[in-house]
Amino acid sequence: MEAVILRALAKQPAERFPSVEAFAAALKQAAARLQSLDLSQAISASDAVAYRHHGALYEQQGDVEQAPADFNEALRLDSAYAVAYVSRADLGVKQGSFERALADYTEAIRLDSSLAVAYTNRGLAQLLPGQV
């Protein structure tokens, strides 16, 4: 949803929607995806992947309370879900929780040593002010 709004507000006209109708259609699609994800979560409440995706949607919308709750639930359901650790770590970096984020990136790497994004984001987090 946020991506649709940001595109509509883009500085460069070429990056915006070509018409109000196109903007409305994109909003409708984003709302349908969110509703679909809510439905899939209700159907499979024990699915860690659904909780991680749901958390990512909340994060994208700026809901900093529900996003970590869903990431935590994903990890409660599947403590070996490396991608959920990366998602929670990414949010932690945005919130300034660097120690927790670094621990989550490290755990993701321990669980899946082929997960390049965990290495990259951990390295970038270590370069942030106060982390060097």
Please, could you describe this protein's structure?
By secondary structure, the chain is mainly α. It has a domain at 39-128: Tetratricopeptide repeat domain (Serine Threonine Protein Phosphatase 5, Tetratricopeptide repeat, Alpha Horseshoe). It has 7 helices and no strands. The protein has helices at 2-8, 20-43, 48-60, 66-77, 82-95, 98-111, 116-126. Helix 2 (20-43) packs antiparallel against helix 3, helix 3 (48-60) packs antiparallel against helix 4 and helix 6 (98-111) runs antiparallel to helix 7 (116-126). The longest helix is centred in the N-terminal third of the chain and has 24 residues, at 20-43. The radius of gyration is 17 Å and the shape is globular. The model has no long low-confidence stretch (mean pLDDT 85). One of its GO terms (biological process) is receptor-mediated virion attachment to host cell. InterPro entries: TPR-like_helical_dom_sf (IPR011990), TPR_rpt (IPR019734), Ycf3 (IPR050498). TPR repeats lie at residues 48-81, 82-115. Keywords: Repeat, TPR repeat.
